[in-house]
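[Automated response] Your request has been received and processed.

Submitted sequence:
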Amino acid sequence: QVQLAESGGGLVQTGGSLRLSCAASRSLSSFATLGWYRQAPGKQRELVARITSLGTNYADSVKGRFTISRDNANVLSLRMNSLKPEDTAVYYCNVQGFGTSNWGKGTLVTVSS
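Generated structure:
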């Protein structure tokens, strides 16, 4: 297992940018899937972006605006540009591997119009 802690959320205006970070308690290099999900009020949690051995995937709604990256062995990031009010949600880091799916507690992103 691995403990995950997200940071970097906050309040931003439409068109602004934020960078989210996910700090892991151990190296992420051996995990099969690294990803970011989000959950807006009253909605189901959805995949935003992920990194697998086959490459990166993005939700259609964030393509061209968000970039997922692994900054170092223990940190996964999500760069978010051109933010829209519909991006408002709690963002969660998720790491899968070794038969486990690990979640952080989330960080709130609020985009004002």
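Summary generated for your ticket: The two ends are 39 Å apart (CA to CA). The chain has a mean pLDDT of 97.
If you did not submit this request, please reply to this message.
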